[in-house]
TrEMBL record:
<keyword id="KW-0808">Transferase</keyword>
<dbReference type="Pfam" id="PF00535">
    <property type="entry name" value="Glycos_transf_2"/>
</dbReference>
<dbReference type="InterPro" id="IPR029044">
    <property type="entry name" value="Nucleotide-diphossugar_trans"/>
</dbReference>
<keyword id="KW-0328">Glycosyltransferase</keyword>
<dbReference type="InterPro" id="IPR039528">
    <property type="entry name" value="DPM1-like"/>
</dbReference>
<protein>
    <submittedName>
        <fullName>Polyprenol monophosphomannose synthase</fullName>
    </submittedName>
</protein>
<comment type="similarity">
    <text>Belongs to the glycosyltransferase 2 family.</text>
</comment>
<feature type="region of interest" description="Disordered">
    <location>
        <begin position="249"/>
        <end position="278"/>
    </location>
</feature>
<dbReference type="InterPro" id="IPR001173">
    <property type="entry name" value="Glyco_trans_2-like"/>
</dbReference>
<feature type="domain" description="Glycosyltransferase 2-like">
    <location>
        <begin position="10"/>
        <end position="174"/>
    </location>
</feature>
Amino acid sequence: MAEPRGRVLVVVPTYQERDNLGPVVARLHAAVPEADVLVVDDASPDGTGELADEMAAADPRVKVLHREGKSGLGAAYLAGFATALEGDYQVVVEMDADGSHPPEDLPALIAALDDADVVLGSRYVPGGIVRNWPARRQLISRAGNLYSRLALGVPIKDITAGFRVFRRQVLEELDLDQVASQGYCFQIDMAWRAVLGGFRVREVPITFTERERGASKMDTSIVVEAFWRVACWGAGRLVRRTPVVLRADRPSAAPPPTAEGPSGQAGDEAVSDGPVRT
């Protein structure tokens, strides 16, 4: 590997998650006591940001980034990534604040970095479990993953997964300024960029549980964005049929991606129950 594991920062975007934030952070620190947590709050009207400030005052492992308004999941994670890269964190984690991503599974995800650069907490590899999701949500999720897998030519079974771990090097070398995706599409975008950039991607099974408190942020616009962007990327991949390397330290084999997202054909560095088959 390019670098050993080191300090861990867990980026937790929040919008109206006051009832969930405290229990999730407590579980996280029980599972990974040495991890720091960065709460990225989008001016939640329910006082989530104020609660995060209280938690930060009581625990130096908790930090808070306040944003002026609700600007989307992707933008929140990118702001968190920038904060991580300003520090000396070697491992950066994405995790939801609603309790659907079990902090107890995080040690296994971090351990998987021994032979990977990006690790996805997957619902759809053997051992993965989904609890308390209505049939409609499961259908949308599985269909979206199948569609993305076929359109982009990668074998990742849960490319929309939001519980994931990055080595610092991945975030340093991918051109994050070009990422404009939001919602589930942001997760697809980041995973595909990692594959195209030559990084090793693994999936580790998790138990995903639907939130018990608060409302889901899922809406039709998130599904439409993912469908449209993936269609554009997939079409570009078929037209070019040329691998594109999306890392700042390597020349590209084709023009770099615009804000619309990456283009190109995945190589064989991704791992999802085995190597990529092209």
